[in-house]
Amino acid sequence: MRKAEISRDTFETKIKMTLEIDGKGKNDIDTGIGFFDHMLTHISKHGFFDLTVKAEGDLNVDCHHTVEDVGIVLGKCIQKALGNREGISRYGFFVLPMDEALVLVSLDISGRPYLGFDAAFTTDRVGDMDTEMVEEFFRAVVQNAGIDMHIRLLSGKNNHHIAEGIFKCFGKALDMATKKDERIEGVLSTKGMLEE
Fold first, then answer.
1. What strand order describes the sheet that includes 114-118?
2. pTM
3. Across the beta sheet with 13-20, what order do the strands follow?
4. Structural domain count of the chain
5. In this structure, is the dihedral angle defined by the CA atoms of residues 196, 84, 149 and 10, taken in order, positive or negative?
6. Which domain holds residue 115?
7. Which residues contact 143 (CB under 8 A, 6 or more apart)?
């Protein structure tokens, strides 16, 4: 079973998360940030990952610590659940339409973290979440999961649609990359290993 459970407790946040890679998209998410919960639900549902998140953060300050720390824990869960990454397809990509928005996500579970983020928002917030935290969330995920990922907004005007498109697209691309391929012996690398 490719599953991980991680807890993280700091002076700023307290987070408990479980992730099952080979799930059905079931989720139970409560971060105290309604729009963020909505976005995490899309990762779970469209990536077919079973995901539970319970987060308590210093929302009296702002949403920054909670969103970033959930990204840290999600990245660590992905890394732990995939283990030695033997047999995974490694690469995943998707182009997703969300009404007028069109988003591309391409990723490589290489062990070498990098985020290329090219998506501009025209409002500071959507619901109760700062739009600048979308990039910060995914930076935290890739740094802790060892993923090289590029996110591109190809078109779009509505900020809700842009954010939702990015989170859905990430779920689809990650699902593709984590799938097992019976043709792969060990890991999919000419080096015989993926970076740790």
1. 91-98, 101-108, 148-155, 114-118
2. 0.94
3. 3-9, 13-20, 50-57, 27-30
4. 1
5. negative
6. 3-178
7. 72, 75, 113, 115
